[in-house]
Amino acid sequence: MSNELIQIETPFQFSEENQQEFERLIQRYPVKEAAMLPTLHLAQKQAGYISPAVMEHVAELLELPVMKVKDVVTFYPMFFEEPVGKYVIRVCYTLPCALRDCKLVLEHIKQKFDIDVASETDLAKGTTPDEKFTLLKSECLASCDVAPVVMVNDDLYKNLTPEKMDEILDGLE
Amino acid sequence: MAFIKLNDLEVEVEDGTNIIEAARQHGIEVPHYCYHPGLTRPANCRMCLVEPHVFFPPAGKVVPDRQLATGCTTTVRTAPPDRKLDGKYDFIVRTDSPRVKKAREDILEFLLVHHPLDCPVCDQAGECDLQDFSYNHGSGKSRYLEVKNVPPKKDLGPDVLLYSTRCIVCTRCIRFCDEVAGTGELGLIHRGSHDEIDIPRDHDENPLRLLDNKLAGNVVDICPVGALISKDFLFKSRPWFMKQVNSVCPGCSVGCNITVDYKEDGLYRIQPRFHEDINQHWMCDDGRLGYHYVNSEDRLQIPMKRVDGELVPTSWADALNLVVEKFSETDPDSIAIIGSAQATNEENYLLGKLAHEILKTESIGLFGREPDEEHKFPQFTIDADKNPNTRGARDMLKLGDDASLTEEVFRDGIANAKAVYLVNGAPERPLDETAKQALEAVDFLVVQDIFESDVAQLADVVLPGVTFAEKEGTFTNAKGWVQRIHRAVDPPGEARTDWEIIQQLANRLGGEMNYHFAGEIALDIAENVPDYQDATHQKIGDGGVKLNGGNN
Ligand code: SF4
Ligand code: SF4
Ligand code: FES
Ligand code: FES
Q1: Which residue of B161, B164, B202, B219 is the best one to mutate when testing the A interface, meaning the one whose CB has the most A CBs within 10 A?
Q2: Closest residue, chain A, to B186 (C-alpha)
Q3: Range(s) of the domain holding residue B86
């Protein structure tokens, strides 16, 4: 581990549209710091993941030390610090889904793409080489009545089997 | 004042005091980690649980409250007459009930779940709250059989290392950087039992910021365990092998209260000591790490005189005789005495006496380190004046407040002098070219110093004095607090305590000084220097004495 400070080559900026969105949402909060989560979501939507450049920019916008941003980014598994696939697959792995064989679904996806399950500190091992898919385990997705469930980006898929999973994944561009 | 029942004691404490402090005031320890009196209180460690008592109407009596409360955030207040407990108490609390003891054991068991057993190689051993509280309040066994988390050791900045495995996540270090320094370099990464203190880094662990603010060293002091470690002190000594004296930092005119840890072979560590009105719990890293010059091999150890253009070693008798000889030949008006903002009040007072009463010269000046920038933090300021005793030196030498330490004033002071006796004593004091020329123009220059500094190199006679860690005396800080420094180690070689050198010289020049220790000089100061009437060593003690009319 060295003590060389990293240099940010390309600073991050919000697109014009996202900048407007940021200005709109910052109004909703009594203090700027409180806008941290929506600001990070917005930035991740634009940049794909939270790079140091993104953290620096968010810190600047919210007038906080950059460590406060890093703190939040590492707390929530919804934020990525590395590039991820175009489609992030979250297989629910909590008890009700486990009782309904989510394991079969997960193993099937692993074999299908020949990838491992990504971890928060190593997203690459769960990402396909063409950067189309990233496979993650998830805690309860609050849909136990239709277990097992999977989220692909913002969409929830219910009552899954390996076959149904194939259909869904094959249908993605 | 609130009247409280604390275990079996009946005591009075000030309204607003928390239970930890109330207990501490009466000799009872409430173990705690996240609470630090100089920081905000998140109540996150739960180590300080105590058992408050409340009135329970159905039973018609006072009983232990349903839940234990955190002693750090529970404060006592005077209750209205109809709300007193048992008719007289404003608050009733037990810190020693079985429930409290069980809670402590349980919390400690949790804290030790991921803690390594590396006390044998941990710098904190012997002064560790985790060791001490486990020893006094722990259960002595763990039921945890699973694999421990082993987060990495991290380099956080120029002087601070983090042994993450030892961290109990009390967040004191984060709060220090947020609240006192206002720099916010530290935070927590990850969640729950994977929490780690860190500086911001990219995904490959390269830092975006370092913990490099000028107050950073304080996080090492307040870390209750051996997680944050000073590189300067790493593996240097077991704390129990060092001795300690109270003193005052000579780094600037704030005059932070410090402790000096030392062994026979030199100084090992400087740490801040609490003073409510001066430095609270803190000090800066310049002061903390600035002590190494004391231990330096390059310290002046023997008197020297100039022979054929070269400085050569000589005896004390020879050196002092030479000074007396030259000074006696010189017209008093052409002799200048230059006191030092680095020297103690006692030393400057004797210099003043030498000038006014013995040599009868009016040419008196002041030497010291040149000012630097002031550094302001939300709860701390490092003074621009890099001398510990500018104010005291002015008072002792009867110089006005405008006797500044800039080179111009100094040059004016010696402009017409043929013989000059200059006391320096600064760890470093470069001279600019014109100041050098002015000193070179002096016929006979005597310099009392601790290094072969720029001034010493120009001298005709060099007298080896000592540092703040080798003598007794007082400094007056910028706000007018007179405070004591104490001798930790012996002077190197033949170097002598500065006031003794001045006294010997004064007596050889016809004076009749007869002081045996610095405290005796302070008694004379108290009698003769306006506003210093209370500044005797006895009254100053460890807390200092504020001068009359000192402005805050
Ligand atoms: S490093 Fe020390 S001060 Fe900081 S959170 Fe850990 S135990 Fe507390
Ligand atoms: S602020 Fe001044 S007196 Fe205090 S530690 Fe720093 S240098 Fe020493
Ligand atoms: S356990 Fe999978 S949705 Fe609740
Ligand atoms: S000291 Fe009270 S909860 Fe930590």
Answers
A1: B202
A2: A67
A3: 2-105
How many angstroms does the Cα of residue A151 sit away from the middle of ligand 3? 11
- Residue B458 is assigned to a structural domain of this protein: yes
pLDDT in tens, B144-158: 999 999 999 999 999
Q: What's the CA gap between B306 and B171, in Å, rounded?
A: 59
Q: Are strands B91-94 and B153-155 parallel, antiparallel or unpaired?
A: unpaired
pLDDT for the residue numbered B274: 98
Q: The domain spanning residue B390 has which CATH number?
A: 3.40.50.740
| Same domain as B514, residue B371 | yes
What are chain A's domains?
A: 16-75 (1.10.10), 87-170 (3.40.30.10)
Chain B CB within 8 Å of residue A9 CB: no
Count of CB atoms situated within 10 Å of the CB of A21: 17
SS3 per-residue string spanning B32-81: CCCCCCCCCCCCCCCCCEEEEEEEECCCCEEEECCCCEECCCCECCCCCH
Q: What is the pLDDT of residues B409-446, one digit of tens each?
A: 666 667 778 999 999 999 999 998 888 998 999 999 99
Residues with CB under 6 A from ligand 3: A 92, 94-97, 140-144, 147, 149
Minimum-distance ligand to the CA of A157?
3
Q: Residue range B522-533: average pLDDT?
A: 97
Q: Which two tokens stand for residue B121?
A: 């190689």
> Cβ separation of B205 and A1 shorter than 8 Å?
yes
Residue B252 lies in a domain: no
Q: How far apart are CA B157 and CA B282, in angstroms?
A: 18
Q: Quick one: pLDDT at residue B552?
A: 40
pTM of the complete model? 0.95
Whether residues B502 and B457 share a domain: the answer is yes
Same-domain check for residues B314 and B437: yes
